Amino acid sequence: MRVPDQLSFQQAQGPFGQAGDDPEITLIDFDAILAMIRRQWLIMAAMIVVFAALGFAYLSTTVPQFTAYTSLIMDRGNSGVISDMTENQSRVTVDDEATILSQLEIIKSDSVADAVIDKLNLTQNEAFMGVSGFSIGKLLGPLNIANWFRSEEDVAEDNKTIARTILLSNMAVARSGQSYVINLGYTSPSAQLSSDIANAYASTYLLDKFNARFESTRRASEWLEQRLAELKQQVMDSDLAVQKFRRDNGLIAAKDGLLVNEQQLSELNSSLIVAQADTARAQAKYNRIQTIVNERRSDALVTDALVNSISANLRDKYLTASRKQAEISQKFGENHVQAARLRGEMEQYEQQMFDELGRIAESYQSELDVARAKQKSLEENVASLTSVSAMAGETQVQLRELERSADSYKNLYQTFLARYQEAMQQQSFPVTEARVITQATPPLKPSKPNKPMLMVLFAFFGLMVGASIGGFREFRDRFFRTGDQVRDQLGLEYLGLAPLITDVRAPANSSEPAHPNVIRPLNNAYRYCVDHPLSQFAETLRSAKIAADLSFSGEGAKVIGVVSALPGEGKTTVSANLAGLLAMQGARTLLLDADLRNPGATRALGQHAERGILETLTNNEPLDQTLMFDPQTRLAFLPAVVRRRVPHSSDLLASPVMGRVMDTLRRNFDYIIVDLPPLGAVVDARAISPMLDSIVMVVKWGETSPAVVRNTLFSDAELHAKCVGVILNKVDMEKMKLYGQHGSNEYYHSQFSSYYHEK
């Protein structure tokens, strides 16, 4: 039947026959998760309780541990004491992270741990050495023969190794953020012991750091001292080599580091320059006065003529005579006797003046000769010393090389001497770049175990284990639970569910003798729908009737087969109740027990029957003698009285005799309900399938695998084509609530369950 598929397809179409928008795809189905939690909450709660109990037991038996903390800071302030005294201090800086990490490794080193052990004598502390707890080695230690011959030193070394292991395993060292602060903590069962060890660790680390600094400074001082002695000798040897070379090569040094010949050459050059200047000046004076004398220039003067009294007197007389001659010539004419006389005097005075200038020129000549002689002498001396200096050039190159070597040794010696003084100063100042800023005190409460946190963790682990078990159970729960699973996995219509009948009672007249042709149910479960016509079970069977009616297009009675994949799924109960419900509604209904191998309907309704369908098929017994009736509903029942195993049951059901019997029954009844054997057990249902109009599949809720139903039902195309739907039987209604998801019938079951109440 494909009508539900067509309806669902039409609902998925848009208003014009086009496909509607795709539903929103969700990565996480929260409804499914919540439903799983509702179904498995008992498992999860049980696991939480179990793990909480384990956590409580663990916390009750665990020895509390106390952690004491001390803090150190890598401080550069202490280094300033030495930095102020030495300008080029070479010290350890704490500016980079690698330095801090190196200090952390130093704190965790075996040397510091051994120093703490020796300081506190931890190998003799029973509270400390007993931290490792009970072990088989401790119990069997006295029985170990090898220990009998060990020396006390070996035992002490082993105890120290054990103490070191305990100490390092219970110590925690970490940097505080990006600061220069180092937090050091120690954990032990004793609060006082934890604080003592933490403080001892801090002080031991500071002492180790100071000793390391002092030792490095001492080694540097010793090395510098040896190096200074070597450099001192090298300086002396280089100076001695310089002096010896000067002596051997006549390179006598004057002041300012110059050689004597170099100083003399410098002085001669200076004197030569002065002599050349004097010669040039004398030559200029001489040339000037010679020019005046040769040109007879009476108006020209020289410096020495001005300061000469004779020249000055003659010039005054000359000028006086010249003035008078000019006055007389102006008054009496140039030919006047007095003017002529005065001109003669002027000539005499002029001659005397030039004679005096000639004497001065001779003195200038003498000065020029002296200057030239002096210049010549100096030039000869300079040339002589220059040749000497040129000859000593190669020797001076070697001298300068020796002097540079000597200067290098002197500078190196001074540098090492300064470093040696700095090292001695560092050695005399007991300071380090670290100090304690927080002393460890005995903690007031244990640091571990953290009881609230551990209880939460145990409960969380219990929740995770419970969720894992629940998830595994959900994964393994591959059974039919909801109608959606029926539609999705089988492609068949879901007809409804039949609740599990828990109130099963025998009829009130079960002790009375039964009439051979009267149906007598074994218990009230086989007429539940007759007694409860408004129940959900009855409503499900009505849905099956409607589906069968819609699928029937012929004439006569509607033959409806009720089948299951496996035995024990309740098909007989469904068959009996469906037949009883149809009969109660006024339809002529026959219930046929076609399970000739295991006639469950006969045992449930007519276990007192003496003859049935087998007698009709094999002995041609009339139907009116084999039929049984229900006096209340007028339901007819054709039992299967099996007194011995029937090996050819499928042949009987597919025989022409069975066909004639079915034709007779079709003419006399409106509905024929056939209780078929399970599909997975025998082939009888396939043999009788041509005589059936429709089939109702009964599946036990929560126990039948979809794979079994598919394999058994889909293996026969005719049975699959005639199947009008599936009924989920024996449904636990309380558990069914846990499998309903939003939008499903199971989810809204509580809202329409009021329709199934009879009161």
Automatic annotation (TrEMBL):
Name of the protein in question: non-specific protein-tyrosine kinase
Keyword annotations from UniProtKB, A to Z: ATP-binding, Cell inner membrane, Cell membrane, Coiled coil, Kinase, Membrane, Nucleotide-binding, Transferase, Transmembrane, Transmembrane helix, Tyrosine-protein kinase
Coiled-coil blocks: 361-419
Pfam families: AAA_31, GNVR, Wzz
Catalytic activity: L-tyrosyl-[protein] + ATP = O-phospho-L-tyrosyl-[protein] + ADP + H(+)
Entry's transmembrane regions: 41-59, 453-472
EC class (word): transferase
NCBIfam families (alphabetical): eps_fam (TIGR01007), eps_transp_fam (TIGR01005)
Membrane topology: Multi-pass membrane protein
Membership in a protein family: Belongs to the CpsD/CapB family. Belongs to the etk/wzc family.
Polysaccharide chain length determinant N-terminal domain: residues covered: 28-120
Subcellular locations according to the entry: Cell inner membrane
